[in-house]
Design goal:
Layout lengths: L3 H13 L3 H12 L4 E8 L7 H6 L1 E4 L3 H9 L7 H9 L3 E2 H6 L5 H12 L4 E8 L5 E8 L6 H27 L4 H11 L4 H8 L3 H15 L16 H11 L4 H8 L3 H14 L5 H11 L4
Antiparallel strand pairs: 1-2, 1-5, 3-4, 4-5
Helix pairs in contact: 1-2, 1-8, 1-15, 2-8, 8-15, 9-11, 10-11, 12-13, 12-14, 12-15, 13-14, 14-15
Length: about 300
């Protein structure tokens, strides 16, 4: 059974972190109990990217600096079966389960051998897709890992929120780059003003207000605290029910059968909930709903 209370407390701890390092430390304070002592997450660089470019894609990292340096200088990301599998599947999975299915090349075997030098012999990997369509791969490593399915699920939800929070810290740097009117429209929207009210107050058209808010949200990114308008999102009872069942791993079809609605309607409710929560995917939506207290 999924432990919402424990997960909410974990996510709230992440929310208090004010730097990428603090987010890493919060995550590891939980995962080290299960043999995971390091974490790294980042977007995927294009093939042929330089080492410097690859480092620029890192969102969170507590990997040893020497291992990061070796990893990017040897272009291991393009030979890492763990990254490749996480990129394709998305779901949290143990490294050892990935490697069982993989026929290692000479370079991959060398990479895995070197990783063990840094006590990274096993771990768990997953990926998330942001609202902008960018994929983030996240991997926790250790020597001997033991997690139950429910603990893996909890870590996956919390990790999704951690990525969003890490991106929000980056987003705050971009807020200063917004145009004056973009800032005013976004700030008024956050305070609950309608598009019509904002247009009347600022002396512009409603279309211009909507455009400025859209542009501002694109610039600051989905992780930013100002990305969502208003306070805590208000989900309809049906949206909450669908999200609750999604938290237990139910598909749209299974949710439709449980609630006696069509699969299309279940999909629509989940999409609405995800949009209201400013989430990039269902995992992120559930994590955000738990943090906000929308799901009990």
């Amino acid at each position: 059974m999924f432990d919402f209370g424990r997960t909410r407390a974990f996510v709230q701890q992440i929310q208090k972190a004010r730097s990428p390092l603090a987010i890493c430390n919060t995550l590891i304070s939980f995962t080290e109990n299960y043999g995971l002592h390091a974490v790294c997450a980042g977007t995927l660089p294009a093939k042929g990217s330089t080492a410097g470019d690859q480092v620029g894609h890192i969102v969170l990292s507590s990997w040893p600096a020497e291992w990061i340096d070796r990893y990017v200088s040897c272009n291991y990301i393009f030979h890492d079966p763990i990254v490749d599998h996480a990129r394709q599947s998305g779901n949290a999975i143990l490294w050892r389960d990935i490697l069982k299915k993989h026929d290692a090349s000479r370079k991959t075997s060398k990479f895995l051998s070197e990783a063990r030098e840094f006590k990274l012999a096993d771990g768990i990997a997953m990926s998330f897709t942001t609202l902008e369509g960018t994929q983030v791969v996240m991997s926790f490593g250790g020597e001997q890992v033991e997690l139950s399915p429910s603990e893996m699920q909890m870590l996956s939800f919390a990790s999704s929120y951690a990525i969003g929070h890490a991106l929000s810290l980056r987003g705050k740097d971009r807020f200063a780059e917004l145009e004056r009117l973009e800032k005013e429209c976004l700030q008024l929207a956050i305070r609950g003003r309608s598009v019509t009210e904002i247009a009347e107050r600022l002396g512009v058209t409603e279309d211009e207000v909507s455009d400025k808010i859209r542009r501002a949200r694109q610039k600051i990114g989905p992780g930013h605290a100002l990305y969502r308008q208003g306070g805590a999102p208000r989900l309809t009872p049906r949206e909450k029910e669908c999200l609750q069942w999604a938290a237990f791993g139910k598909s749209e079809w299974e949710v439709s059968q449980i609630l006696g609605i069509s699969e299309h309607t279940a999909e629509k409710h989940l999409l609405n909930a995800k949009t209201k929560l400013g989430a990039s995917n269902r995992v992120h939506a559930v994590a955000e709903a738990i943090r906000c207290g929308v799901l009990d």
